[in-house]
Amino acid sequence: MTKTPTFRHETAADAAAADDLIDRAFGPGRLVKVSERVRERAAFRPDLSVCAFDGAALIGVARMWDVHVGATPIAFLGPLAVDSGARNAGLGAALVEAASQAARAAGACAVLLVGDEAFFRKAGFTAAPAADIVMPGPVDQKRVLLRWLADSAQKALKGPLTS
Ligand SMILES: CC(C)(COP(=O)(O)OP(=O)(O)OC[C@H]1O[C@@H](n2cnc3c(N)ncnc32)[C@H](O)[C@@H]1OP(=O)(O)O)[C@@H](O)C(=O)NCCC(=O)NCCS
């Protein structure tokens, strides 16, 4: 990284660079993951998704989607990817926080994702509140993580994740 990164919501013009970064970060296995099954059905929210730039170069992305558990609308985060040359400088955490705050501002009560709790715990994500959410495919339930965005909105989230 040469400069302090800048952040903004994703636009259509960012899609190719963001897809390329995600492909590099995850490799070919990413399309078989359960998160991809979620995203196939969900509505993409570029207005909640966040890209990070080093000058004109896209170096990080956190994408967001609209999903439901029962009648409750929540945000689904992923993929999260940071360019290998920009890692371990807080960018991944900053992207998660910016996307979560955008979802909060848009009225979402929670953000769900599939990932390593060791990384996402620092941003307030834990497996316990997502234990009864049924994902659309095989998954290690310990990797299904939820962060509440509004204390007053906490309710039992139980049943299939739908679009
Ligand atoms: C995961 C990823 C987004 C982190 O980006 P980043 O900008 O390096 O993140 P941050 O700088 O905010 O945090 C880095 C810290 O998280 C740790 N970390 C990174 N990935 C981790 C993981 N999977 N599990 C636990 N800790 C992890 C790093 O070791 C580092 O720890 P430190 O602060 O103690 O040194 C980036 O490594 C990446 O794009 N990886 C490939 C794609 C991926 O795995 N995405 C996440 C899906 S689970």
Rg measurement, Å: 15 Å
Number of strands: 9
CATH topology-level name: Aminopeptidase
Class by alpha and beta content: alpha+beta
Major beta-sheet overview:
9 strands, mixed
**Distance from first to last alpha carbon:** 37 Å
Question: How do the helices and strands follow one another from N- to C-terminus?
Answer: EHHEEEEHEHEEE
Key structural traits:
single chain, 163 residues, alpha+beta, Aminopeptidase, nine-stranded mixed β-sheet, 4 helices, 9 strands, globular, binds coenzyme A
Could you explain how this protein is built, in words?
The protein has 163 residues and is α+β, with helices and mostly antiparallel strands. The chain has one domain: Aminopeptidase, CATH 3.40.630.30. It contains four helices and nine strands, in the order E-H-H-E-E-E-E-H-E-H-E-E-E. Strands 1, 2, 3, 4, 5, 6, 7, 8 and 9 form a nine-stranded mixed beta sheet that branches. A hairpin with a 2-residue loop joins strand 4 and strand 5. Bound molecules: coenzyme A. The site of coenzyme A has 16 residues, from helix 1, strand 5, helix 3 and helix 4.
Summarize the structure.
This protein is of the alpha+beta class. The protein has helices at residues 15-26, 34-41, 91-105, 117-120; strands at residues 6-9, 43-44, 50-54, 57-69, 72-82, 110-114, 133-134, 144-148, 159-162.
